[in-house]
Amino acid sequence: MNNRWRTIDIVIASVVAVAFGVIFWAWGLLYNGPADAIPLPGRAVLYGVWLVPAVLGALIVRKPGAAFYTLSLASLVSVAIGVSWGWTIAVQGPLEALGAEVVFAAFAYKIYRLPVALLAGAMAGVVAAVYDVFVWYPDTSWATFRLPYVLITAASSLVIAGLGSVLLTRALAQTGVLDRFPAGRSRALV
Known about the structure:
69% of the residues lie in helices and 0% in strands. By secondary structure, the protein is an all-alpha fold. Helix 2 runs parallel beside helix 6 (142-175).
């Protein structure tokens, strides 16, 4: 397997990242708007959307650093547009991406099937939630807030970022848009 990034890898990962950077901005409006009616830690069921680019980028590009690059760039785009959390997302995004990247690295960047994607999504969710409980919710109880928040975020990320990315990759592969990528050539294996 050639781990060297091609120009098309950079372009597609960047397109996914920019698209999700805009989605992050809109999702933040929902999360801090109508969804604010759902009390925390329950609102964490929506969290997985912010981690999709890490898993999706890795499933499409299938090269070392794809999860990190895609989510980090998406985070920077959302910061540039103006998310309510400001510059902290420029730090948090890459940290979350490392959670997913570590999972793909553990499988030597060779296995991109559903269980690995689910694990990558969940791991990114754990990293995201741990960051949140120490940075945003430092005075909360582990028993009544932090642990439920971490578990709900991990479950949300497993389903939305993990399974959702697999389904998005399959849908994109069916259109033929991924034919120049292993994800498009191994449609049944994604």
